[in-house]
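**Discrete fold encoding**
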Amino acid sequence: MFGSLFLHALAVCGGNPDAKRLYDDLLSNYNKLVRPVVNVTDALTVKIKLKLSQLIDVNLKNQIMTTNLWVEQTWYDYKLKWEPKEYGGVEMLHVPSDHIWRPDIVLYNNADGNFEVTLATKATLNYTGRVEWRPPAIYKSSCEIDVEYFPFDEQTCVMKFGSWTYDGFQVDLRHIDEMNDTNVVEVGVDLSEFYTSVEWDILEVPAVRNEKFYTCCDEPYLDITFNITMRRKTLFYTVNLIIPCMGISFLTILVFYLPSDSGEKVSLSISILLSLTVFFLLLAEIIPPTSLVVPLLGKFVLFTMILDTFR
């Protein structure tokens, strides 16, 4: 155990003897399985925040949102304090995160089975005992999609994070930007390095801290819910779906102006009906297979098909 710590110390500290000695002193007898509190009844405050890097995909059919983000986490570990003057002025140290205690923060509404952060990046230790950990992750989260106004729709997808093991009396989960013990943060997700999506515009990103009590237990269970509200960019669908559909619908009206004995009337009506059928099938492939609501665009196409059938 000590030998592996020594090797990591050489890698992390880059040959700095003061940093190496600090690394050994902090972690040689450190137990990463024990929650870092002085008294077992104390709650350890853990603060988190999301930094959204990319909105990879919003799958309407499967109702899954895929995001690339950083899960910023910070807490205080009293066992990782030191006096900088005793270690050559070293005030900060980078250590492998799997060598220290970490809060088991997971995404509750995960849609692919990977609930936890899979990449154990290094954590930053401050001489005050403050620990900062910013692992990157790609999450697939379940999202309820409302397609009534497709493609002119707005969607709100939630990402609910919380501790998998600890209750609210053991880990007090809060947002990093929370002020005056409020449970709502208006800008809960950092978008400073967000890569602009080609399909969606991000409108709002509030975060809410929730406390839940269950009938089985007296202690509360905490989570931070991030609400990502986005609006679809409609140019693609307008050019490739709306305008052709409206053009074909306009031709349906023109059919009524053709003489009843005209042979072109039947052939034109059949062509329009087949075109509308193709658009209807295309729309059915895009939207999720739900019976809760039918998009207004789908109702319009269906009405036009019926009108063309009983011309």
About this structure: The longest strand covers residues 44-59. Confidence is low (pLDDT under 50) at residues 5-13. The radius of gyration is 28 Å.
